[in-house]
Amino acid sequence: MSNIEDRLLDEKVRLSELPVPEELEARLRKALNAAVPRRKTIRNVKSGWRIAVAVLAIMLFAGNQYHALAYYSMTLLGFDGVPNGTLRELNKQGKGQTLNEQIQLANGTLLTINGLMSDENQIIVFYTLNNPNGFQNYDSLIPIRIKGFRTDSRFTSDSSGPIEGQTETKGFLTFEPVSPLAKKLTLSYWDELPEKDQRREKHITFPYHPDEAMTTKIKQDVNVTVDGQTITIGTITATPTMTSIEGTLQAGLVDLNEIDLIANGESVHLITSEVSHRTQEFSLQYPALPENLHSLQLIFKKTGDTVQIPIK
User: Fold this and answer.
1) Which of 62, 211, 240, 266 has the most Cβ atoms closer than 10 angstroms to its Cβ?
2) Considering all CA atoms of the chain, what is the largest pairwise distance in Å, rounded to the nearest integer?
3) pLDDT band at 32; cut points 50, 70, 90
4) What is the three-class DSSP state of 160?
5) Angle at Cα 140 formed by Cα 137 and Cα 142, nearest 5°?
6) Range of the domain at 153
7) Which of 306, 259, 307 is closest to 285 using CA atoms?
8) pTM of the complete model
9) Domain with 237 in it: what CATH number?
10) Nearest Cα to 89, choosing from 214, 267, 228?
């Protein structure tokens, strides 16, 4: 404010020192003497200055507080205590897409979809359940899949807070990744009817912003050498939410129980593994890799191969 006042004062002094032609001065004095005082206009001018100063102050405040406002608008409030350390840290960083889509379940529980986190490995749906009458020990959200444009992602895992005796609980669901071309997604789930052992499939649809999906850190083919021949057995994909290795088993070459992922010289623990005995396709899932990653290897204990994974 002091800078503005100083500039106004300087301008006032400069104008007061400008020479005024005698003829012009006389005409101005005559016009002023004949004019009727308009105090209302003066008040409006003063009021206008006050408004301008107030707007300027608000702009300065908003500019200083922009990052804080942006942070709280993106953070999924109430999910800072999720047990998954990776998701907790990503939430603190304001990653993901916030939502507030609601639907009432058959038992009177209100389901709120609070937000999403998405990358090339998976999509995670954060939700809240509210029931003023309290939950029973069998009350829970039973997801089926997520569908959308070029998307049919099956449910893979979930995590939630305590249910019995509570009136509110929060949790998250994980699904296979969705198409980056999708603009809206539909979550299907089983809605338990008040009648015993009866349920029906229900749906809730929400917007999806693919531009808010997190980028892939590493995506590389995994090659091993047998009898001098290089064979590609799969692909490793490292994203902010998890690390996956997907491929096809080679007879007598790969034993899923004897693959070790090493990041920065330390073994990364395996979360889950899947294999199709019909197609021999397999999937290994690990936690997200360290932020300060400087080395990454895959060790095949059965063949003794060590595969160096390039880091971007």
Assistant:
1) 240
2) 109
3) low
4) strand
5) 140
6) 79-212
7) 259
8) 0.72
9) 2.60.40
10) 214
